[in-house]
Amino acid sequence: MFWVRESLLRHRDDLEQLLRQEYNRQQQLVGCPGVSKAVPPNLKKVIDALEDALAEVEAAITAQQRQHASLAEAVRRVQTVPGIGKRNSLWLAVVLYRGQTLTGGTGTAKGLRAFLGLDPTRHESGTSVRGPRSISRMGGPGASAVVPGCPGRGAGQESPAYLLPAPGRCA
Q1: Are residues 98 and 122 in the same domain?
Q2: In the predicted model, is pLDDT for residue 32 greater than 70?
């Protein structure tokens, strides 16, 4: 069930990216000299087809959520976390289920943090510390992308990495 959901979410993200590209292309053509008269109508057809496909995928996601009470409950629970909305809760429910499945339900908070790629790291060389903590780049590439304030590639001052204890130290 969650694997099907993940494929739908990936496809939705791909369709949204394609739509953004086509919208940008459409904006670039406005007032541009030397554009064939056949291009704008054709571009409109492509955008309409992508919008229809996106609507179908959204309907399939909604239908699946209605069919599976456990999925709806997981999404509802994830949405209780501050900063997690409807869009990110769907992805997080899938990622958390995958983590639970891979560990056989015996995973720890530390293991989940590492699986998500949110494990803080320090840059050390011998006895000196070189730089502040940052979020590691381990874990799935999509996991850290849905966590608010987590760019997944290094951490700024507002990043949750500064809120997490350093590895091997108490909070």
Answers
A1: no
A2: yes
Total domains in the chain come to 2
Rounded CA separation 78/99 (Å):
14
pTM: 0.65
Range of the domain at 42: 2-105
Q: Is 120 in a helix, a strand, or coil?
A: strand
Residue among 88, 129, 85, 94 at smallest CA distance from 115: 94
Please give the C-alpha separations between residue 73 and each of 32, 67, 76, 94, in angstroms, as whole numbers: 50, 12, 5, 12
One domain for residues 114 and 91: no
Length of the chain: 171
Q: What is the pLDDT of residues 96-143, one digit of tens each?
A: 888 788 788 888 887 777 777 776 666 666 666 566 666 655 555 555
- 118 and 90 share one domain: no
